[in-house]
Amino acid sequence: MDTLTRRRFLIASGVVGGAALAAGATAYTLHDILATAGDRPSDPDTRTLVLVTLYGGNDGLNTVIPYADPAYHTARPELAYKPEEVLRLDNSLGLNPGMTGFKRLYDAGRLAIVRGVGYPKPEHSHFRSMDIWQTGQPDHPGSTGWLGRWLDATGGDPRHAVSFEPVLPPVLAGATTAGAAVPPRSNATTAVPAGFGRTAPGEPPLQARAARAYADLVEVDAMVTHLPPTPAPGGSAAASGKAAPKPASAAPRSPVAAQFDLVARCVEAGVATRVFSVSLGGFDLHADEKEAQQQQLTELDAAVTEFVERMGRSEAGRDVVVAIYSEFGRRVRANASQGTDHGTASDLFVLGTPVRGGLYGAQPSLTDLDDGDLKFTTDFRDVYATLLDGVLGTDPARILDGWSGQVNGLLL
Q1: Strands annotated E in 175-289
Q2: Rounded Cα distance, 378 and 282, in Å
Q3: Are 98 and 298 spatial neighbours (Cβ–Cβ below 8 Å)?
Q4: Cα 408 to Cα 293: distance, rounded to the nearest angstrom
Q5: Residue 177 CB neighbours (<10 A)
Q6: pLDDT class for 205, splitting at 50, 70, 90?
Q7: Which residue from 49, 60, 57 is spatially nearest to 146, judged by alpha carbons?
Q8: Is 253:228 a contact under the CB 8 Å cutoff?
Q9: Is the CB of residue 308 less than 8 Å from the CB of residue 351?
Q10: Which of 230, 278, 232, 224 minimizes the C-alpha distance to 251?
Q11: Among 253, 343, 235, which Cα is nearest to 289's?
Q12: Of the given ranges (22-36, 93-107, 310-324), which has the lowest mean pLDDT?
């Protein structure tokens, strides 16, 4: 295989950047992460965080539904769920009908719902609000992610914070280092010669490295596109890091489920990674929201529930905490297109064995509004501080510009 042709192909298809190859930067692969198996600290208090970003601004009022509040039905008469449709948590709140797994985890005490999460002087711009959430700095424009700063403070090994998304999210970018991006799929893996993944005698080291990275992407693509999750720990697949044989009835995995499959594989292998980043988009629903959002939440519910239940079956998995957020909620009143426009405060989910399930934070009023928006009752930095302290074992004030408030009782 012509190495120059392959190099151009790899750059054009996004497998590695041309600047990275020219500068000698190392592209991380799944095998690089799995190679850290056994390097994890032996401290029994060491836990793992899986941060899930819902891009687009998920409608919190149709996710955790105040079905008993007349103001909810008045504000969105056609968009609102009827009391008999929701999955009831108590006599006033219920989950979206698509979240049957979350309801099961809530009943088992492994799902916490933090209500009214937001920040002062909220932004309605997707980009600015997501920037605030990912930097953890609502008071001023930030240039580093809150988990990137954690990575800086703990030695700066990129493999300690891993994203299985197409690109590395800003939340994992620090001042001196950044996490490792290992995309679960690549457009490079479609109908191309197998020779792109093989090295050639005498090939320059960086191009050989690019070839191995490409081969790894092909393997990962095959795994997440066709295979079901690896079996529960104890089997040879998890221990060896090799994919299980493809069953005849295997169906393609959803993108978010594929990301969780890779996280589970790494956790069960005992890798050194302390933070994983996962995402799901498609929540910016300005029209015909009800059915579309329920489909999105059903996809999320299936992937997260399967992952949390799988994690509960292994020692390493029982130290995993999942946190799910979106850049903002939606306005209380439905618009004329039976959707909702950009709002402010919303719900944040925390799941896993180390979680003390239940409801946290005050429920925002649907009548005492800020120009049509919910008033936040919990600062998102309280949640971040809780995760930094209780999951990552780090002083939150070092990472969050002196912030020290927490959500009391959230973690066991």
Answers
A1: 180-181, 275-280
A2: 25
A3: yes
A4: 31
A5: 17
A6: low
A7: 49
A8: yes
A9: yes
A10: 224
A11: 343
A12: 22-36
Closest CA to 277 of 153, 179, 188, 403: 179
Which pLDDT score is estimated for 343? 98
So where are the chain's domains?
A: 28-399
Backbone angles phi, psi at 57, to 5 degrees: 90, 85
Map tokens 């405060």 to a residue. 345
Asked whether 411 and 321 are in contact (CB, 8 A), the reply is yes
Looking up tokens 């594929």 gives 258
Query: Using an 8 Å Cβ cutoff, are 60 and 378 in contact?
Result: no
Strands (E), 41-123: 48-54, 64-65, 87-88, 94-95, 111-118
The predicted structure's pLDDT at residue 253: 83
Asked if the 28-399 domain carries CATH number 3.10.20, the reply is no
Q: Mean pLDDT throughout 195-200?
A: 54
Model confidence at 168, pLDDT cuts 50, 70, 90, reads confident
Q: How many angstroms separate the first and last alpha carbons of the chain? A: 55
3-class secondary-structure state, position 340: coil
Phi and psi at 75, nearest 5°, equal -75, -25
Q: pLDDT by residue (tens digit) across 40-56? A: 876 767 899 999 999 99
> For 356-410, what is each residue's pLDDT tens digit?
999 999 999 999 999 999 999 999 999 999 999 999 999 999 999 999 899 999 9
On whether the CB atoms of residues 389 and 406 are closer than 8 A, the answer is yes
